[in-house]
Write a structure and sequence with these properties.
The complex is a heterodimer of chains A (453) and B (183). With 453 residues, chain A is mainly beta. Chain A is built from five helices and 31 strands. Helices cover 12% and strands 42% of the residues of chain A. The longest helix of chain A is centred in the middle third of the chain and has 17 residues. Chain A is globular and about 70 Å long. Chain B has two domains: 34 residues; 133 residues, 60s Ribosomal Protein L30, Chain: A, CATH 3.30.1330. Chain B has five helices and eight strands, in the order H-H-E-E-E-E-E-H-E-H-E-H-E. In chain B, the strands form three sheets. Chain B has a four-stranded mixed beta sheet. Chain B starts with a helix and ends with a strand. About 23% of the residues of chain B have low confidence. The chains are: A mainly beta (453), B alpha+beta (183). At the A-B interface, strand 15, strand 23, strand 24 and strand 27 of A face helix 2, helix 4 and strand 7 of B.
Chain lengths: 453, 183
Amino acid sequence: MKNKYFFILIFCFFFKPLVSHSFVEIDITRGNLDPLPVSVSPFFSDNITNEKIKTNLNIDNLGLEISKVIENNLRKTGLFNTLDKESFLQKPDIAHLKPRFEDWKLINSQVLITGKVTSKIINDKDYIRIEFKLWDVLGAKMVDGFSLTTVPTNWRRVGHKISDKVYERLTGESGYFDTRIIYVAEEGPKTQRIKKLAIMDQDGFNTKYLTLGNELVLTPRFNPTNQMVTYLSYFRNMPRVYLLNIETGKQEVVGDFPGMTFAPRFSPDGKKIIMSLAKDGNSEIWVRNLETNIQEKLTDHPSIDTSPSYSPDGKYIAFNSDRSGYQQIYVMKSDGTKVKRISFGKGIYGTPVWSPRGDLIAFTKLHKGKFFIGVMRTDGTGERLLTENFYQEAPSWSPNGRIIIFYRETKTDDKGQGFSAKLWSIDLTGYNERLVKTETDASDPSWSSLLGN
Amino acid sequence: MNLSKILKNAFLVVMFGLIITACATKKSVKTTPTESSTAKVEETQKADPIEKLDALMQGDVYIGSDTVGELASGVPDRVFFATNETILTTASRETLRKQAAWLRQNSDVTVVVEGHADERGTREYNLALGERRANAAKDYLMTYGVSSDRIKVLSYGKERPVDSGSNPLSWSKNRRSVTVKAN
């Protein structure tokens, strides 16, 4: 499991967080119209470090780049207003040592983030040590911080880990920045799309393509406990659910089924895959235990039963079925008993995805020719539509359950031109809708859990 | 003093009553339209194309010849479906009988029936729908004497449209099952 993505050395908290009641806090349960002003000072680095990093990474000012990673993460939450670096009065090294809080108050900053990058050599290998501090400007004190040492190529992840710490400290919720998104990269005309599995950091950097595009691939989903992925591949024109280890590149068919398997998702403990099997014109939901290799049919109905998703405690499964005549959302116990329809609003409902917090189910809804992404409670009450468009579907939750990522396709013109597919994200509040930048067109996003050390 | 107290209480009772009725009305408003919801969806989806396109569509099933290829000379390769439907129309059955007749005459030929859906549905549901459509065609071919081991089905869902338009006519061409020679 250990490879270059993982931090080779300790992740050590050497600053003891001071619990302070006066410290600024953000309520993220509603749309934030008054974002908190934050200054992210460029991280300081000395000349020797700069030269080393220039040779290693070809980056002129790594400290500045790390501060930009953090700034970008925080700004995109919609909860923070990151202040222009031009307005900073204090130099990075001095600010990191002991900020002159009056200077930061002057530009209305309530929070200050400072840091320092130092190059190190351990066993003849280059490392970087990055130190960060979080300051409460009004309270005039340091409230958090840590340092860690890692290989130089890991620098963006350090920026994400710092962002997670800041987010956690200021909102009281766990972060989602040191995560990745797996998706389907798309190219070519609409009638002959080339699709590849792709993975990128949550902020759109470090894109890697995991398949070559020789066969159609769809619906990749992360294992919540590790870096395994399950997806649908048309390898040899046999659409089947596959398991892919993204560290080793090893892939294998899941189970031995007498027909198309599709719509896979992991159980919360990562030990099972739930999916649909289509055979003789009927799709049913099956589960396969990856440890015992026992597979079991969970639904038994002549209608289409698909898009299953486990509750985070593993006790229930939400899925969509057209047994009422149209696609609607149902919940059953994970052994297939006690099937109950939960969607009763106007329109067609599909792709239920259980929130990692367990209290909500995200879904796609089609009503009057428009597609919506929405959420409802697990008993179907409290339906809330977050966004409406010509075509959008496939919601996936951020690991903290605050953001939903999905894909959206455009309507083509009279000549069938102008098609595109893009990833978008929206806060659970219904605010802060954003295009998630990808190198190519993209669909079927799945958000990883927080990466380990 | 007493009067004002009574008035106060009366006011509270009235307010309470109002709140209750308000709640009750809200509830009844919410539940009534729910009943007819699915029917309405059906209506809006099927009503649209009929007006302009009756020459190319019957209901919302494509009846034109654009995109239609041949399995063999004089034998069309595909049949079309209504939105969310897997029922074979009269024209579809005729096409499939022609396919079956040709397949009976050419007993060494095996085929793949590819099932497709339009872009107006979620990806996974459409994979299932495509499989259902392909099987509807396969079952009909079998009824007319083609043995099941000569027919494979393959669902593409909405992944392989023939027409890239975003309009009812394009969608009707994409809701199809296509019989393709496999050898």
